[in-house]
Amino acid sequence: MASDAQRKSAAVAPAAAGGPFVLRPLLHDVPLSADGTAEDIKINCVEYLDGNLYIGTTASELLHFVRIPPDPRDPDGSVSFILATRRRPEYSEPTAAPNGSRPGVQQILLLPRVGKACILCNWTVTFYSLPELSTVFGSTQVRNCNWIGGVDLNDEGDDRSGGVTILLSLNRRIQVVRIGNEDARVIRKIDFAGSTLSVRRDSIACVADSRSYALLDVDLQLKIPLMSISSLDESQPGGPFGQPQDIAGGADGGLLRSSSSATSRPLLSPGDIQGHGRSTSLGGFITGNIRRNDRRLGDTEDPVFQDSEAPPPSRSPGPTGLSSTQTQQNSDKPLPPPPLPPPQEYGGEAAAHAANTRPPTRTVSPPKPGSAFLRPHIVSPTVEEFLLVTGTGPLEPGIGLFVNLDGDPTRPTLEFDRYPREIVADGGAPDLSSSRSSPGNEEEGYVLASMVKEFEDGLHHGLEIQRFDVNVGEDEPQKFWLEVRDKETNEPTPNTPIGIRSLMQTEEMSFEEVVDKLCQRRFSPFRGGNPETPTMSLRSMDSRTAMSMERQSQEKELFDRDLESDEESLPPGWETARNREGEDFVRRLAKSSSRLAVWAGADIWWAVRNPLLLQLESTLNSAVSQNQPNTSERHQLLALLDTIKGRDAKSELEFMTLGYIRQRASVMLLSTFLGSPDPPFTEAETKAMEENLLGGDLDARVVLALIPALRNELVVNRRGIWIYGGVKTVVESCISAEDVGLAIPTVASLAPHVLQFLRRFLTAWRKKKGFGSIPDEVFRTVDASLLLILLELDQNTPKGQNAKSGSVRKELYDLVDHGVDCFDRAVDLLESYHRLFVLSRLYQHHKMAADVLATWRRIVEGEEDKGGELGDGEQRVRGYLSNISNQALVQEYGIWLAARNPKLGVQVFADEKGKAPKFEPTQVVAILREEAPDAVKYYLEYLVFGKGNTAYVNELINYYLDIVIHDIQSSPISRATVAASYDAYRALRSPKPTYLRFLKDNAPPNDEAWQSRLRLLQLLGEAHDYDATTIRGRIDKLVSALPERKQGSGKAAQQQLLVPEAIILNGRARHHEDALRLLVHSLGDYDTAVSYCLRGGLSFLASAPGRRDSLQTRETQMRLFRVLLAEFLVVDDLSDRVEQTGALLERFGGWFDVLEVLSLIPDSWSVDITAGFLMAALRRLVLERHESMVTRSLSGAENLRVNYDLITSIDEKEPVIDAGR
């Protein structure tokens, strides 16, 4: 057992409002006294049926009240009762009653099945009709009765013909009486003396006398003795405990019954006893007949009693007459007084009343020293169990034991802090005797015990409430303490004894507190209630800027934005109608029924199951008491949320309750989180708060309404935000507690941990997109708020940094890339934060190509983009243009790009893989000439070199020529560079590359003029059809404008700057001599000169595609070689002259005439220079001579062969004589 200190702690810990039961008024100020003068009158018992309330008092009066239902048109109306009758039941003075004690009306037993009521008043039972309490059965009375009851709790039949069987506990026996419509008859008498209490299930009754409990089979008249009421009482008679006993013996041992009954009722046979091996239970002993309700053979029905003046009946066989009052008085001696708490426990009037309510006494053996008489308590919490209470004394704890119908223990015991005065059981397994708040659902089982307990300020009367259907293990079981309160002051009245009883019929009632808290109400996040006149706010306002205007009016303006565009028209009074519908809906769910009546003094209450909502909300209210620090407060809130986490709702009301509590507790946590001066929440606490805010399905706008810096982002339609009324109250109280200022706080003013919380919370909320039950306005608000938070957090990211996984910038990109519902607001926010690149990503998601390009254009042209993520903007524009199909946009931004970056811009028009329709070259050229002239050359290069379109070769050559001549003409450095290239090349010793290779290898990488000259030489040297004459004329015209060089004058000197070009043009004009002279003397490119001769002067380049060198005649080649030899012989450098002449003659001697060469070679030259040529010439001459000799020999042999073949042919044909001649 628990110690006294533990019991006191357990008793005061739970709050009354947080317990499983609450008291609701049934009837206050009961007129216990007819004239109102008597003040010592108390309520003994209460019963209720079909709107009729029956109250029995110590003044031996029975009050009958009739229920007046409330006005159905008044939702706040309450039930009222009016006094119908005040009756004094008839009774007889009990035998040997001390000082004529009259306890008054002790019991009210209603039998609705037969429309009768049994009243036990001053130990006398009388019978009445329902509901008006008219006397029935004549003057029938049962005197010296201790208890009436024993109605079968399992009998739910409506058949009135069979009557109802009850048990009358007389001093020496129990009478089984059947109450019918017309009379009451004794059907059986059980030899069980001194019973004071009985509860029956089928044929098994659990009964108690003044000392012990027992189980009886009222049909088979078998008994199983159970435990003593007082564990200190050792005065019980001997006999086997827990074993069945037959109490249907003869006259010496049991009941007084007719001779026929005594002789015709058989006992159980030995075979029946041996049918079961277990004999310690009643069920084993009676072998399956324990539940048989048939009347035993030979039994007869006797009327209970007749008028007291009737003669006593004779005890002869056959049906007997009615027992007389005199016989009853002689056969039933008084019982010992029932155990009651000592006077000091109750004190005052209660003690005096207890002393005057003792039944008639009879002589009994005194108890042993140390034992105490305790009042027995029996209830049946389930259809298979009885709960019995034992103890050691009235001031000591009591123990509740559960036994089944066989007398075996079934579940752990209960402990009561004090031995109770009254107990009732409610709930548990399906039982008609329970008070149900949700019909059809199995509820928790509770035991309610009326007792007096000691507290620090003295003794308190109240109800101790605990569960009986759970295994509490080794921990102290949770108990609840409930006291009655004064109806006017609402203060506890601990000095008034409390009675409790389970009534015949339940009463349905509604909890308006639950209705108020669970009903959906329209919520406004600003002071002053719901706005009535919608207005439009400027969406482009920078939410970070504090506005110096009156806060309330500004918030309303922001709250109502976009409502003018809401085309939905709402009928007048729609909000009132919706509130009424919501209240009716919740009121239907919040109804509860109870059959437990509690009384104290002149007031009566219903003991109603406290709705889960009120229990949990009481815990919430205690968690936010003013005396607790914020740390303790949030720990209690989190603990409460953890208890309901994962709990499955058993009804719609419980589902709404759990959601409401989760929302309310989460809002309270968030309020603490936002305004706590203590250190921030731990990571685990913050995560738990986020999970509950999300899991509670609270509108995200309500959460954001608690943060003034984000109220600007709330979007609400005309119907507004609807949330639980209890949550609305909490949120509004938080908003009203804010400091009233002139400026709205900015997002930058939020603490970092708040920003991070909002970042995670809003990101998680966006995952609910697609749920049809969530309005679009919620996601518009969530997206705008999240975008604002991410923009604020991303300001700390270095400019130009890439978006890394898990970073704020990556989340920002994901947000806009996946689309936001608040598009216009997002544009305003991004513009206000100067995040143009992020804005372009938003446009990309919405496939707004024109806006994407326009935004990038703003960045490229220098407008501020604080993120700096665009990088190479021109290249991004180029890539994006290839992926869009709008030709007009491609043309617009292709021209813009070509004007800024001609090379890149031309790629737009040259892109063959783009999605837009292709442009015609003539169209592009015309556009570029007008809009981006510098890009024309690059587009022509694409056409000529990329596409092989030779139609634009001539025009491209002119572009290149313009660039080259302009560069040479305008830049002395360029002229000097060109001239220096010639000198440097000539200075190279053989072997050396061709001049063109030398020119490419030494070209500056980014020199456009140099690259243009290379392309010009390439085009001029290839087999393209261009106007060489016109080009030569342009060169002559442009070159003539060049300043004269120092080493020469005139056109010839000026043209030395364009030597390769002149060579190509001379070769194309077949001025081979001029071309070779420039190659040899101006360039010193001897290898190219030799190639020029081999190709017949058709190409200056080393390889010219499309040329057919084999077509050149040997005569042309020989002529060119003779010209080249002549030029070599006049080279200024003697060593080059000798070296190149000797090499030419040695390699290509076959193209020269020996005599002609010898005539040209100076006589002063050594023979060694031409030795190779001469030796080759001699070899060639010898070879030619030998070849001619062989040819002649072959010709002679061939002639001989022909002659031989002729002669042979003539001989074969023989001579022929022509006779005709």
Automatic annotation (TrEMBL):
<protein>
    <recommendedName>
        <fullName>CNH domain-containing protein</fullName>
    </recommendedName>
</protein>
<dbReference type="GO" id="GO:0015031">
    <property type="term" value="P:protein transport"/>
</dbReference>
<dbReference type="GO" id="GO:0005737">
    <property type="term" value="C:cytoplasm"/>
</dbReference>
<feature type="compositionally biased region" description="Basic and acidic residues">
    <location>
        <begin position="552"/>
        <end position="562"/>
    </location>
</feature>
<dbReference type="InterPro" id="IPR001180">
    <property type="entry name" value="CNH_dom"/>
</dbReference>
<feature type="region of interest" description="Disordered">
    <location>
        <begin position="425"/>
        <end position="444"/>
    </location>
</feature>
<feature type="domain" description="CNH">
    <location>
        <begin position="40"/>
        <end position="475"/>
    </location>
</feature>
<keyword id="KW-0653">Protein transport</keyword>
<dbReference type="GO" id="GO:0034058">
    <property type="term" value="P:endosomal vesicle fusion"/>
</dbReference>
<feature type="compositionally biased region" description="Pro residues">
    <location>
        <begin position="334"/>
        <end position="344"/>
    </location>
</feature>
<keyword id="KW-0963">Cytoplasm</keyword>
<feature type="compositionally biased region" description="Low complexity">
    <location>
        <begin position="255"/>
        <end position="270"/>
    </location>
</feature>
<keyword id="KW-0813">Transport</keyword>
<feature type="compositionally biased region" description="Polar residues">
    <location>
        <begin position="321"/>
        <end position="332"/>
    </location>
</feature>
<dbReference type="InterPro" id="IPR032914">
    <property type="entry name" value="Vam6/VPS39/TRAP1"/>
</dbReference>
<feature type="region of interest" description="Disordered">
    <location>
        <begin position="234"/>
        <end position="375"/>
    </location>
</feature>
<dbReference type="GO" id="GO:0016020">
    <property type="term" value="C:membrane"/>
</dbReference>
<dbReference type="GO" id="GO:0006914">
    <property type="term" value="P:autophagy"/>
</dbReference>
<feature type="region of interest" description="Disordered">
    <location>
        <begin position="544"/>
        <end position="575"/>
    </location>
</feature>
